[in-house]
Design brief:
1 helix; two-stranded antiparallel ribbon; elongated; about 10% helix; about 160 residues; mainly beta
Length: about 160
């Protein structure tokens, strides 16, 4: 169910079941419905035989988006920064805004990192190290290999 801009009620207005259903019940249902599926695309990377999945929901102008990229033997991160597409365009004043958290997993070394997703002007985000500002690239924070994972949970304002 889609989100509807809530009604502005007027003093003395008769509240009907139809109005309550459209502006209260349906919006609450939209928040609780299953997330919409979205297949992210990469810039400076290829999925190859890996997997990439995503899903999101939107209520008003707020978007919640999560996803996972698991690298396969033919997956690559070819340049810095790796960018991951957004399902809905963000407002332009959020360029370089921190929009959630990204978890990185080096499966061979069992190494984990929590980095930050930064929105950019191409309606995608890139992943940056909060300690030094470096971005995910072919060898940062490690050399990416089969089974490594990038998980994200992002929230932002849509355009």
């Amino acid at each position: 169910m889609a989100w509807t801009s809530p009604r502005t009620w007027v003093v003395g207005e008769a509240v009907t079941a139809a109005l309550m259903n459209a502006h209260i019940r349906d919006n609450l249902k939209a928040l609780g419905d299953a997330l919409s599926s979205y297949t992210p695309t990469l810039t400076n990377g290829t999925v190859g035989n890996g997997t990439i999945t995503g899903n999101y929901t939107a209520a008003g102008k707020r978007v919640w988006y999560r996803g996972r990229f698991t690298l396969g033997s033919t997956s690559t991160i070819s340049a810095t920064p790796l960018r991951i597409s957004l399902p809905v365009a963000h407002v332009s004043n959020q360029i370089s805004a921190i929009a959630g958290v990204v978890y990185l997993l080096d499966s061979s070394a069992s190494a984990r990192r929590a980095w930050l997703p930064l929105l950019n002007d191409s309606n995608s985000f890139f992943v940056t190290n909060p300690a030094d500002g470096t971005n995910v690239g072919p060898t940062n924070p490690w050399t990416w290999a089969t089974g490594d994972v990038i998980d994200w949970d992002v929230s932002y304002e849509s355009a």
